[in-house]
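Slack export, channel: ligand-projects

TW: morning all. Re-posting the request from yesterday since it got buried. We need the structure predicted with the small molecule present, not the apo form. The ligand is zinc ion; the SMILES is in the block with the sequence. No rush, but it would help planning for next week.
GE: picking it up
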Amino acid sequence: MAKNTYGPIPGSAIFNGVMGRKAIIMAANVRIASVAEGIFRAAKETDSALFMELARSECDLKGGYTGLTPHDFSERMQRAAKAVQFGAWALHADHITIKKGDTAEVAATKELIDAQIGAGYTSFAIDASHLFNFEGKTVREELSENIRITSDLATYIRSRLKGKEFGIEVEVGEIGRKDGEGLILTKPEEAVGFIRSLNESGVFPHALAIANGSTHGHTYDAEGNVIDQLSIDIPRTRAIARALRENNLRVGIAQHGITGTPRDLINLHFPKGDIVKGNVGTFWQDVVFNTLKVFEPALYKEIQDWTLEKYRPSNPGKKDRQIFDGNCKFAIREFFKDLYALPEDTEEAIRATAYAESLIFFKAFSSSGTASLVQKNQQ
Ligand SMILES: [Zn+2]
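GE: finished. pasting the full token output, ligand included:
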């Protein structure tokens, strides 16, 4: 099917296909669908496998903050893939986040998963990392709720897909969580204990998201200026990957929050192959908004005014620049009609920028050749 329609292939086909290769597969959070075609074109030309994804906060049954439901997102991604005739991609549900783990939340989550499966999703990230038991005496005690919910939902996905292959990512250590000392990082024994417990319950994730020093979105200095993100702890990341390998646990690392990390640093210093999936989200939103600044100044101004008016009251003491930067994502839904009715020259600039930036990501990730590899592996 994938060959003729360029529809998404199972996430497992990508993870298994690139196993052992020193490459990172880009996962693009496409909050505004106009960037998708450029990304797909660059993927095709560089022969790079790809994930297209949105998190639960970005895309749910009510549209999330992007205004896209799973069905809308799937349709738009399939259309873009078809336009460039690219078939080595998976449709991934990023951060299916569970915050409380009670019956109502689990039921609502299963409803979302049903909709994602109905829309043709082929890969899923269950994120119950918030359910951390700080009173726990052992790793298992600390992670018991995360383990319980993750295996319940993974088992649910498997039963709903009735034997069809799919990709599965899980999360230990909430990304960006801080204590008095700074960012809390995942320890190797936490990663090992978590994956081992899941394996024991019959769940074998392909990718594990860890807290290793990244944050979602931009990084700021004390003045609220956007700065490079240099906080990803590479030795810790390597240590976690090594601990997993030494315990015969076959799972790669999903690096979240890549926006802002210089790509030359990724290229030269990231442990490619230990990290198998690299999530890039806010970056693609920037591509659209930076284009609007020049091509659609009136619309950009409207978006700016709306965001500042709405979010200034809840952000006292912060500079307008940072308030806009951190909250403009919520304007996507508000300005949905405008963002999906841009003139062709604006669309062209967005496509071209997304294409060029993707070439740089794919180079930095060493993903060239992975699309063929995945497709060969599938036959
Ligand atoms: Zn994330």
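GE: first-pass observations. The CA atoms of residues 113 and 157 lie 7 Å apart. Residues 139-160 form the longest helix (22 residues).
TW: perfect, thank you
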